[in-house]
Design goal:
By secondary structure, this protein is α+β, with helices and mostly antiparallel strands. The protein contains twelve helices and ten strands. The strands form two sheets. The protein has a seven-stranded antiparallel β-sheet. A three-stranded mixed β-sheet has the order 8-10-9.
Amino acid sequence: MAASGPAPRARFYDGVTAQAHGADVRATASELVIVRRADSFILARWPIADLFVLGDVEHEGVPAVACRGSDARLVADDLELRRQLAQLIPHLAGLAASPAAPGARIAGLGAALVALLGVFWFAVDYGSEYAAPLLPHSLQVKLGESVYEEIAADKEECHGKAGLAAINGLANRLAEAAGYEHPITVHVVAGGPVNAFTLPGGILVFFFDLIEQAKDSSQVAGVLAHEIGHVVHHHPTKGLIRQYGIDLMLNLVSGGYSDIVSTLGSGGSLLLALRNGRAFEREADATGVALLEKLEIRADGVASFFEQMMKEDSTDMAAAAGIWSSHPPTAERIAATKRPPIGRPAFTDAEWRALRNVCR
């Protein structure tokens, strides 16, 4: 190979200092000679056979040339020089490749990231359906107890033995009818709001205001059956697993510190939690009614409880909130759970009196 003429400028790094030397490059049949442009000093003589392209030629704007056994680097800023070197030295052909446009690279990276998030989101959302029942029950109980301790820390728990025996007895009969193999524990807390909720491990919390304001025992039984529906479908544990999965995904994507990704993720996880909340509530409603009917207990209490709530406050907050509500519209729930007032009472008269006095 004949020697080439003076080539366009390049930059030479000796691998020892950070200084960049303006350089000319000449190729012979056996070596690449790198000369400092300022004073024609020979900076390096690299054997042709030992040259290679360093870096990603498809994405880097100016990939470097290196020589095996040396830490020095040659960066040919001029495209024409890179083409000359690629033509003269076949194994440097990558120097002549045109890198992808930045816009295309960004779009490709964005599409890949969206696809990865979508797969992870799908796995978190639907994988929890199978993972929750596999979580050891003892661990679920510990989780539920720790949450309950925080909730009840500044509240008074009710200890009427007969009342607690009545509501716990019905709760465990309902769970047994559903094929749930673990014990249910119902706590009654003094005061309000008029509400009840379920924690992991089959732990239920009833506020006494709900019991006190119920017009009959069928309403309390309806709410209790609804909460048992949450238990047998592992809704609290599924919610925890999903939230943990979303948090893990955000940390992986953002490196644990990106405010932007965390903000976007918070909105996304909120929508996911609300969607799951509505699905969980519908499933618990249907399961609760089915369990009461299976035990031949009056099942009209679910709908009548919602109807009483609507009479006290005609504004259907769930319907008004729309997509942002964690519960289905109350009118929809009434229509779905409406049943005739037939069947035996959920509690005996003595049990109902004891439950009404559980906090006294």
